[in-house]
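User: Structure tokens for this complex, please. No commentary.
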Amino acid sequence: MTTLTVNSPWRTALARPAVWISTAAVLGALAFGLLLIALLGVPVVDAVEAFAEGAWGSPYAVAASLNRSLAFALVGLGFVLAQRANLTNVGGEGQIAIGGIVATAVALYGGVSGLPAGLGFVLPALAAALAGGLWGAIAGVLKAKVGTNEVISTLMLTFIAVWMVYGSVQSEQLLRQPVSNATTLPESLEIPDPTKVPLLTGDFSMPLHWGLPVGIVLAIAVAVVLNHTVLGLRLRAVGLNPVAARRAGMAMVSSVVGALFAAGALGGLAGAFMLQGEQYSLKTGFSSGYGFDGLVVGLLARGSVTGVVAGSLLFGFLRSGGINMEMSANVPTALVVVIQGLIIVTLAGAAHRMDKKETPR
Amino acid sequence: MSHDVLEPARAAPPAEAVGAPALLTLAGMGKRFGALQALADVSLELAPGEVHCLLGENGAGKSTLCNLIFGVYAPDDGEMALDGRPYRPAGPADALASRVAMVHQHFSLVPDLSVVDNLLLGQQTRGVLRRRECADRVADLSARYGLQLSPHARIQDLSIGERQRVEIVKCLMREPRLLVLDEPTAVLLPAEIAALLDVCERVADTGCGILLVTHKLAEIKRVARRATVLRGGRIAARSDHPEQDLDDLVRAMIQRDKSPLRPRERTVAPPPAGPSRRPEPALMVDGLTVRDPDGVVRLDRFTLLVEPGEIVAVAGVEGNGQGELGAVLSGLLAATEGRCFVAGKEVTHATPRALTAAGVGIVPEDRHAVGCITGMSVAENLFLDRLGRYRRFGLLDRAAMRRDALALMQRFDVRAASPDVAFGGLSGGNQQKAVLARELTLDGLTFLLAAQPTRGLDVGAVEAVYGHVRAACERGVGVLLISSELDELLAVADRVVVLYRGRVMGQCPADAAHRDRIGAWMAGHTE
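Assistant:
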């Protein structure tokens, strides 16, 4: 496969088996989903209309889908970054949770709401990213020092983090809002306005916030780091052959810890954006599986940042459309999960063929 | 008989030497792997109840021959017969069905399972596991052959010697008529070796034929009824009285037709000219001792000086401590005791990065595991330890890297379509030249460790590799060459140190006149 692009980049991209096989897998899964809808006895046209309405039918729907995609993308980027060093970060959900807790705590009690120049919302987000990074780095240290498998440790740390969300909104000493009567919900206070990530449009009819451009910049940054820096090359060397990388003088501990820190920081940032950009208060079930969807996006991307962006957009719109399909067309939202699963299975199967047809660089 | 030992290979096998009808007959066996003729025209005969030793250096074709007998490979030429009937195993299962069993160099045991479960893995294919029955058989075999084993121990808790006993029991449970042991003693301690040889004798006493692959003369002396020496895939000698012909066998083992390497022109080193000459040796190793996790001493108080511009070779049959020596000097294994200095600077516990900074170049023994990253490009591999140089405005300067890579590839004759192709696609010789190119162009190179640098390379590549090593040496780099290719190191090195069981058996100038002495040392044979 020539790397010189004489043709238009689009044609070259579509000629790559990785691209057209993935596209075919997605389309096939969607078609199968429609078949399932028909089998449920729901008029397919109604279902598709409801789906389109929920996914991109209104400015609000588009924004909701994109915000979902943003969270998936950040977690997916972290996954791909760590994957380059042959680390599997399955802890996105926990890193989101930690990000959410820390963003809430700093926004509510960090005394940042009075700060000028946007620091009010930047600082909680940065704190969340740092905390998520440290959460990821725990797994990195365990891996580098004791050899604990990072799949296990990041997953276990996820359980801890998710229950920490639960715990912190149960107790007034922690983040729960002051309990005034028996109906006070176990959730935090709403964060002050200056700590909310400002909307791009300034209007809740399309609640797109500044997280989206930040996400785009981060995606470009991750792509550049992975493909065009010495650091990216080192991560790749460490991932492909740790012994040879060590012999060549590369520092194993800092690579492993650093890669998982970066992945965790992206997860923490996703949590901050979810909290400061959309939900504004911390509740139990604050992240309903976004971290795991992001993990799937990262897995399916097979190391490519473009793949992460494409996958997160697909899953973001799919989820939004699915929710509306349930509300207005009576199609269980579980069906969307089924379609998502089908996409995963077909793509994973197709990956075999891709490996044969195309040696990834 | 001792004069017949060096008869040409085509001599008919001594059929009636033992008297009994042959159990296994090999006639004109040959095997090619690509361009490599691993075995050619090998004929051999083995009687029931005979322990037949198969000798030869690394790469002589011993394992290939064993694998032909066990049906792992199909021969390209020749015929085998078992008990007079044609024997053409289609695979190991076939061989086992013909009651031919083999213990490989590398064990095939599941570490998490018990001895009994491992044995049952190969024997019982369905139903409820008959553990009790199996344990009884193990106990029976243990008693009969003096193989001590606890049937319910887990493999991972066993020593190497015990694991090997499990492999042997696995074979014996099939009541073999022919047992092939591929270098069984290479990994064992002296006491374990003695026990193993006892087992061999007892098994042979039951009428089973044993083909024992070994390098070790003491073992031949002890158990062999007959011995055959392979060299370069052909039979170099055979003996019906190996205990008398030991010296001839050693000579046959290490003699080479003609070394492809021109001997080194040794220039007499000029006397140290004043203070400008670096006084420190390139490498100084003082009492280096390595114990493995089981506490077994793998390298025993190894002491060595390598002067700048000198090539010192460490010879030895594989597994006698050279691997450990190389690993310690590469910073991949911690020495238990002792110290190492490079140009006067201590590097005993230096990290690989510090070693590179100290000017230590390393051509590792296991190129694929340690020396390169096959999934990355040639250029990336050439500068693996100095990627930081190709940074411009924080980004990777691929153009500069490619340019430098091309220059280096030209200088070291690394043949690849471009610097961007995957390293794994290069031939072994070109890979090795690339690794050498990287290590020899290290800044401030003072010492080069080259471990088995020519393994698997063709003659041309061997010559190229040593040409570069010699050139470095002339620039004042001290070189430690670890190799089991005696002829090569005699041609290249100034001095040879022989390791046996982790200890220095002796050292002498690298002169062809000392070949026999070196060979004897390698085989653990003191004069």
